[in-house]
Design goal:
By secondary structure, the protein is an alpha/beta fold. It has a single domain, classed as Rossmann fold (3-Layer(aba) Sandwich), CATH 3.40.50. About 35% of the residues lie in helices and about 15% in strands. The protein has a five-stranded mixed sheet. A hairpin with a 2-residue loop joins strand 1 and strand 2. It is globular and about 40 Å long. Bound molecules: zinc ion (ZN). The site of zinc ion has 5 residues, from loops.
């Protein structure tokens, strides 16, 4: 694992680690720096190992007025090499993100699909990609099971990706 990868992982919020059907949930404040074991060890148990990444503030620039259109999406520089490293280490990469912007009526699921198409094509341009993107469209007050830190999105990803 090179330095850039360590730095990115240090910035990432690890919402969970997937080891086949077994789940270890870590708080959103958990970073690689606070993990006692190297990240490689955390994932060794799994035949289908995955890293779950947040979107805004991790891979893309966070906007106080939300990302509502593809034009407003800006991929952060420097995410390419670390994502490639994680891929080369055998991890599947899955984005799980809360997007209450949809529930607020500021954008639509159709727009979100276009935003994520743009995200994937920008990542491809940087020589990497993610396996899937899952988002919760609901308001925080909705009490849904998919808004992080609820595990709904990750359960869905596990079902879809095996
Ligand atoms: Zn939800």
């Amino acid at each position: 694992m090179n330095l850039a990868t360590k730095e990115l992982i240090g910035r990432l919020h690890f919402h969970s680690l997937c080891a086949k059907r077994h789940w270890n949930f870590l708080s959103s404040e958990t970073t690689i720096n606070s993990l006692s074991a190297p990240i490689d060890d955390w994932f060794q148990l799994s035949s289908s190992k995955a890293v779950f990444l947040d979107r805004d503030g991790v891979l893309t620039r966070e906007r106080s007025d939300y990302v509502k259109t593809p034009n407003e999406l800006e991929v952060l520089p420097g995410v390419g090499p670390p994502l490639r490293d994680l891929r080369n280490m055998g991890f599947r990469l899955v984005i799980v993100t809360n997007q209450s912007v949809v529930g607020r009526g500021l954008t639509t699921d159709e727009q979100m699909a276009r935003i994520h198409e743009k995200l994937q094509s920008e990542l491809k341009r940087m020589g990497c990609s993610v396996d899937a993107i899952y988002y919760c469209p609901h308001l925080p007050s909705a009490g849904c099971s998919c808004r992080k830190p609820e595990p709904g999105l990750i359960m869905r990803a596990a079902k879809d990706l095996g």
